[in-house]
Amino acid sequence: MRSRTITQSALAALRSRKIDFGYGVYAPTDDALGHLEMSRDRLGLLLSPEHPLARNRTLNLADIENEHILLQPRQLYPKLHADLITAARLRGVTLRVAAEVLDLEALMALVVIGDAVTFVSEKLWDPASQVSLLWRPVDDLDLYLSEFAVWRQEDEDTPVVQALVDSAKEARRRL
User: Fold this and answer.
1) Count of CB atoms within 10 A of residue 83's CB?
2) Tens-digit pLDDT profile for residues 36-88
């Protein structure tokens, strides 16, 4: 099973033995589930080169307090939303989330025209394909997006799960 997020239903399916292996963006907190971090990428701000903040090489959360911020839907990434809001509040900043946009291309199009900014991982911003956008680190935002392979610890030595874990380890080495 491959999913962008390890959902509660996927974790339940792992625990109930309906699936043997999962893949998603959050590490499980359950000790009965093993996991392997496949990738880790810093979260930063994506903005138009015409945006006033584009001249800054790095930003702080206070710099974007009055900006219109677009995010992907909370339902897709509930922990990321909570982590962003919490990180800002801890620094006395209230983020103005103008909208949640499901389609990543539509979200980026709104950023390109300068109507808003958004948070994305550094790897998602590919300079070769996103020449009309800039990615900037946010110095006081210590958030990373990770992807995890997940399985039941008790099954780690079974042939199928061991082969999947070994494949995941090999794939991680190549990244």
Assistant:
1) 16
2) 999 899 999 999 999 999 999 999 999 999 999 999 888 888 888 999 999 99
**Backbone dihedral angles phi then psi of residue 131, each to the nearest 5 degrees:** -65, -20
pLDDT band at 6 (very low <50, low <70, confident <90, very high): low
How is residue 130 written in tokens?
């996103």
What is the architecture, at CATH level 2, of domain 40-145?
3-Layer(aba) Sandwich (3.40)
Token pair recorded at residue 62: 């206070």
Which residue has tokens 């939303």?
A: 81
CB 83 within 8 A of CB 74: no
Q: How far apart are CA 64 and CA 93, in angstroms?
A: 9
Instruction: Record the pTM.
Output: 0.79
Residue length of the chain: 175
Extents of the domains making up the chain: 8-39+147-174, 40-145
